[in-house]
Amino acid sequence: MKTLKCDLCAVKPMKKLILSGTILLLLSGCAATNVTPPVNNNQTSQTTTPSPIPAQTQSYKNSEYNFQFDYPATYASIDANYGNLENKIAQVQISSTAYPKTNFGDAAFTVSEATAKSLDECLTMNEPEGGAVFKASTTINGVTFYTTTGNGAGAGNYYETKNYRTLASSECFEIVETIHTSNIANYDPGTVTEIDKTPIWTELDNILSTFNFTP
What we know:
Protein Transport Mog1p, Chain A; 3 helices; seven-stranded antiparallel sheet; three-stranded antiparallel sheet
């Protein structure tokens, strides 16, 4: 914020005695004042940053497949449509209405499952679109998951994914984090801004960190 300048604040020494009350009055009128800059209605932001992760969370628990995870209350539990394995079990998602006037489509955390005879079969079945093979690994609450990334496009829509798989009791489980955006060139200039995906990935990673298989 800029500080308002005041010529009266530059008080030069005077030869004649001036009452102290008068000096104080002049100086108080020159006190620094914070001035709000005028709004430039023609200025547009290039990047929209989503809000921080809310403190309120909900829990998803599945007694059939014995897993659970926590997710922000701003996400909704819906019928799963992302995920690469045959049985799409669960999905929590935040919709485009969360970030209006951006090219954000949605973001989702999805769990799917399929029967597999071995870890190798689990890691090679229905591989993610545009993804490499599952080679890298990470540990989530004591369980080793193998990871890869993926990406897909169609009709001006882009889908970026982080994919995690593990084998548990002859069942292949996959967790997919997805961010869906649209081609900003499809919009009239100045009507939408490019979404900043980094905080959204952080939200999805935080959900992942709570994923647990239950007894």
